[in-house]
């Protein structure tokens, strides 16, 4: 399968963004939300929560992001619930990002890539979040696997939580410069995407299969992250931190600058707290606000 030229995950993402705008509905069945929704804190509860969220998102948002942790706490029954939620989203034509934040040495990470990104696998998603603490190089084989299968990955680079600043602003020596850890991760992912495009086949509209996670609460300038120049191929950005964590979705262009066209605006609690009866309206309202802000 080709990628980066509009046929792989980058192409799928581009179509979803064109059709629905950048809103990604997080599926985070916290206990307080299960209670508010009148659901049990159980595998059956998270299953129902996930399926109802997919139903509300269908035709309103192009992307959902189930937070694997909230399903995993119920063991195999929780995973069975997650499989159903992922399948329902796929059947509804919604892009799925499994928020599993996996990281390990390359051979073990390959197992995770197989679990989440193999077409037909029980936990098949369109993309998975990964943690580069063991080095972006440890992700290389998995990134190739993703791209070969028309799938995507989002590599944590500048995360939304305040505790991350110390490690992510640490300086890394590169041949020509010294850059922050966040910047180094973004550069490495961008280099991977560029390398997947055949030499001489540069295509102005290409979108990479591998993206980065950049939290909307981060001060990018202070963290050495450059959002002033577009990447080629375009770099998909998963941007949590909107809504409950304080960033305003309507400020997406101001915050993400040249990266805005492929920035995914992810919100979980701020939408989900509308409850099962109000969720569809909440998604419609946020999607419309975003479309208006991006005109
Ligand atoms: O990878 C993520 O999605 C992620 C990265 C990050 O830097 N910060 C962050 O909050 N997240 C996830 O995004 C979601 C945010 O949820 P809300 O704060 O309720 O919108 C949670 O599932 C987090 O695990």
Automatic annotation (TrEMBL):
A Pfam family that the UniProt record links to this protein: OMPdecase
UniProt-recorded name of the protein: Orotidine-5'-phosphate decarboxylase
Keyword Calcium: no
Lineage of producing organism: Bacteria, Bacillati, Actinomycetota, Actinomycetes, Micrococcales
Protein keywords: Decarboxylase, Lyase, Pyrimidine biosynthesis
Annotated pathway: Pyrimidine metabolism; UMP biosynthesis via de novo pathway; UMP from orotate: step 2/2
Residue ranges occupied by any Orotidine 5'-phosphate decarboxylase domain in the UniProt entry: 22-283
Matches recorded under InterPro entries: Aldolase_TIM (IPR013785), OMPdecase_type-2 (IPR011995), OMPdeCOase_dom (IPR001754), RibuloseP-bd_barrel (IPR011060)
SMART domains: OMPdecase
Catalytic activity entry: orotidine 5'-phosphate + H(+) = UMP + CO2
EC numbers for this chain: 4.1.1.23
Family per similarity comment: Belongs to the OMP decarboxylase family. Type 2 subfamily.
Recorded GO MF terms: orotidine-5'-phosphate decarboxylase activity
Taxonomic superkingdom: Bacteria
KW Amino-acid biosynthesis (keyword) present: no
């Amino acid at each position: 399968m080709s990628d980066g030229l509009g046929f792989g995950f980058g192409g799928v993402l581009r179509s979803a963004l064109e059709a629905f705008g950048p809103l990604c509905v997080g599926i985070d069945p916290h206990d307080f939300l299960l209670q508010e929704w009148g659901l049990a804190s159980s595998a059956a509860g998270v299953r129902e929560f996930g399926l109802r969220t997919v139903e509300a998102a269908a035709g309103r948002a192009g992307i959902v992001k189930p937070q694997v942790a909230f399903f995993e706490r119920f063991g195999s029954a929780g995973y069975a619930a997650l499989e159903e939620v992922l399948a329902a989203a796929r059947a509804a034509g919604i892009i799925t990002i499994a928020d599993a934040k996996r990281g390990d040495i390359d051979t073990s990470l390959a197992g995770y890539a197989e679990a989440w990104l193999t077409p037909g696998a029980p936990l098949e998603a369109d993309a998975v979040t990964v943690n580069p603490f063991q080095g972006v190089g440890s992700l290389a084989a998995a990134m190739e696997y993703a791209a070969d299968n028309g799938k995507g990955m989002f590599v944590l680079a500048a995360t939304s939580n305040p505790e991350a600043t110390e490690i992510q602003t640490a300086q890394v020596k590169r041949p020509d410069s010294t850059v922050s850890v966040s910047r180094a991760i973004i550069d490495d992912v961008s280099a991977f995407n560029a390398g997947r495009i055949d030499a001489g086949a540069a295509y102005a509209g290409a979108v990479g299969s591998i993206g980065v996670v950049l939290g909307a609460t981060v001060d990018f300038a202070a963290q050495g992250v450059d959002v002033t120049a577009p990447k080629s191929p375009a770099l998909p950005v998963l941007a949590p931190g909107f809504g409950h964590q304080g960033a305003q979705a309507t400020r997406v262009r101001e915050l993400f600058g040249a990266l805005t066209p492929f920035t995914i605006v992810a919100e979980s609690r701020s939408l989900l707290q509308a409850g099962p009866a109000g969720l569809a309206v909440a998604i419609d309202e946020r999607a419309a606000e975003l479309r208006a802000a991006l005109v």
